[in-house]
Design a protein that fits this description.
Blueprint: E1 3-9, E2 26-27, E3 30-31, H1 32-41, E4 48-53, H2 58-66, H3 70-73, E5 80-81, H4 86-96, E6 105-110, H5 118-131, E7 133-139, E8 145-147, E9 153-156, E10 163-165, E11 169-172, H6 173-185, H7 194-200, E12 206-209, H8 220-232, E13 237-252, E14 255-258, E15 261-264, E16 267-270, H9 277-289, H10 295-298, H11 312-324, E17 328-337, H12 347-358, E18 365-370, H13 376-379, E19 383-395
Parallel strand pairs: 1-4, 1-6, 4-5, 7-12, 17-18
Antiparallel strand pairs: 2-3, 6-11, 7-10, 7-11, 8-9, 13-16, 13-19, 14-15, 17-19
This protein binds cytidine-5'-triphosphate and the ligand C[C@](O)(CO)[C@H](O)COP(=O)(O)O.
């Protein structure tokens, strides 16, 4: 009998802090979703896999899929658009499955649980076949209280009967799809897992042994812990630093581009592109950190297509080059060297713009500025310059 895995990956990961949605963040060089997909795609009991993804995440999804062996990629069906809640994402994934046997087993799994082991997938499938509805659960080890809105304890629950539940959760396809459709029709939209939805629909749901290692990455701390765990398995990251420097000559004009912003000025800059020294220095710093040439290697000034180009593209490209090697940008630091314009008033907007282009939290972007005390070419206001340092983390093997 066929087993189909639905991987729900349409969330925004808001509790995991700023940056990419958590399922697309790298853990020791591979994305969370890539790791989750690998676990299911390499399991001999899983036939096909369908992900529910956010419509904005198509490119991120494709990069995660690219981490899989080509032979395993064949198990993937085209992704479905997820919805505003996990429940809607599962429903839409079910609706996107090709027609098929209602008795097939559907495993519903959170993309955010990349540590799922083959043994757990196996247990879920077996229990799904045996019972029609089965979920993994762990005994609760803390004492659990029910607490009122005023913070007062109402009751101490009998923890012997409690389980903290995980995914993959296994159900027969027909009843699961029917329960989701009924819940949608009746406006029942607050189920936090499919087990609860099936209980509501009248099914008996059985619990099999879960796995304490199968954590759902939820907070930034979970990511730190996950990295420590992977390092313990020999999958570790190393820090690399790259630097960049760029200069442009002032010419006649009424504005310059700096840090991705159009800044009114009494001069312009001579440049093939938009002449943004901050973004150029950052681009070189990132390329330096991965030892992948420089901005001229990737965007030759002799190539007419880069004439007048917005430098956002250069930085975006370099950030993608880092990520495609499994790297993560930890910090970006820039010093602008010029007498004018004054940078202070633009600093915050610049940090936000750079953070958005490079896909890093704004807290990890620093902009500093200095004059050169009227000495040298910047002091004479013949041009302006920027230097940058990028700190990234890369898988040790890359
Ligand atoms: N609208 C949603 C919400 C969640 N999920 C998925 O459901 C799983 C479990 O959800 P959770 O850990 O809560 O993820 P997020 O919703 O992304 O996290 P947060 O609540 O912190 O934003 C994740 O793999 C998530 O991508 C989904 O597919 N569609
Ligand atoms: C499905 C789940 O992972 C089981 O523990 C959990 O209910 C998901 O909850 P979230 O609020 O969507 O993280």
């Amino acid at each position: 009998m066929e087993t189909i895995a639905i991987i729900v990956a349409a969330g925004r990961g808001s509790r995991a802090g700023e940056g990419l949605p958590k399922q697309y963040r790298a853990l020791a060089g591979r994305t969370v979703l890539g790791r989750t997909l690998q676990a299911f795609a390499s399991h001999p009991g899983v036939g096909r896999i369908l992900c529910a993804i956010h419509p904005d995440d198509r490119a991120l999804y494709e990069s995660s899929v690219a981490e899989l062996d080509p032979a395993l990629r064949r198990k993937l069906l085209a992704p479905a658009a997820g919805g505003a809640t996990r429940q809607i994402s599962v429903r839409q994934a079910l609706a996107a499955l090709p027609p098929g046997d209602g008795d097939a087993i559907v495993l519903v799994h959170d993309a955010a649980r990349p540590f799922v082991e083959p043994g757990l997938i196996e247990r879920a499938i077996e229990a799904g076949v045996a019972h029609g509805a089965a979920i993994p659960g762990l005994a609760v080890t803390d004492t659990v209280k029910r607490v009122g809105p005023d913070g007062a304890v109402c009751e101490t629950l009998d923890r012997a009967a409690l389980r903290s539940v995980q995914t993959p959760q296994a159900f027969r396809r027909g009843p699961l799809a029917a329960a989701h459709a009924r819940a949608a029709a009746e406006g029942e939209d607050a189920f936090t897992d499919d087990g609860q939805l099936m209980e509501w629909a009248g099914a008996t749901v059985y619990v099999v042994d879960g796995d304490s290692a199968n954590v759902k990455l939820t907070s930034a701390r979970d990511f730190e812990e996950a990295e420590r765990r992977l390092a313990g398995r020999g999958e570790s990251m190393i820090t690399r630093v790259g630097t960049g420097f760029d200069v442009h000559t002032f010419t006649e004009g009424d504005h310059i581009w700096l840090g991705g912003l159009r800044i009114p000025h009494t001069k312009g800059v001579l440049a093939h592109s938009d002449g943004d020294v901050v973004l150029h220095a950052l681009t070189d710093a990132l390329l330096g950190a991965i030892a992948c040439g420089d901005i001229g290697t990737h965007f030759p000034p002799s190539d007419p297509q880069w004439k007048g180009a917005s430098s956002d593209r250069f930085l975006d490209h370099a950030a993608k080059e880092v990520r495609s090697r499994g790297g993560r940008i930890d910090h970006l630091d820039v010093t602008v060297l010029c007498e004018r314009p004054r940078i202070g008033q633009h600093r915050e907007a610049m940090r936000e713009r750079i953070a958005a282009i490079a896909g890093v939290p704004v807290e990890n972007v620093s902009i500093k500025a200095t004059t050169t005390e009227k000495m040298g070419f910047t002091g004479r206001e013949e041009g302006l310059a920027a230097q940058a340092a990028a700190t990234i983390r890369m898988p040790e093997r890359a």
